[in-house]
Write a structure and sequence with these properties.
alpha/beta, five-stranded mixed β-sheet, two-stranded antiparallel ribbon
Length: 150
């Protein structure tokens, strides 16, 4: 019997900031699918301490709402061409790739699922377009996961 990769779906966002809760929503939907070898975790934002946690998995999917861009973008993160950003309130996934490489001499495999949101005001309800994009993202991620597990 083939043992599949260990996959983490990390939902980034604040569920009480309307469409900013898209990442956590995606995690809850993926969790309902009970895919063997898939773990979900919800974080309000990325932080450097996640590097060590992410290294426990063969693949990490970071699902997060975006204020601009395509409705849903799903791609493998490549450290080339993107500058790591860090401040007291901002860490991007490229910085985590760099930390894994330089501190642990290991490679992180990260997929990004960027989902276009429209309403980031206080509230627990998604905009209609944000909800549609989030549901499309769930479908894309689940299809990708199933391909990894077969």
């Amino acid at each position: 019997m083939k043992i599949g990769p260990r996959i983490l779906v990390a939902g980034i966002g604040n569920p009480i900031r309307s469409d900013d809760g898209i990442g956590p929503y995606i995690c809850r939907c993926i969790e309902e699918g009970k895919c063997k070898g898939v773990t979900t975790a919800i974080y309000h934002q990325l932080h450097t301490e996640l590097t060590e946690e992410f290294l426990q998995f063969d693949m990490v999917i970071i699902a997060d709402a975006a204020v601009e861009g395509a409705d849903v973008e799903f791609y493998r993160l490549d450290e080339k061409g993107i500058s790591p950003v860090a401040s007291s309130h901002h860490v991007n996934a490229t910085l985590l790739l760099s930390l894994a490489k330089h501190l642990y001499q290991k490679e992180l495999n990260i997929m990004i699922c960027s989902v276009r949101g429209y309403d980031f005001e206080m509230g627990e309800k998604f905009s209609n377009a944000g909800k549609n994009n989030a549901d499309e993202a769930v479908s894309i991620i689940l299809n990708w996961i199933y391909k990894q597990l077969v």
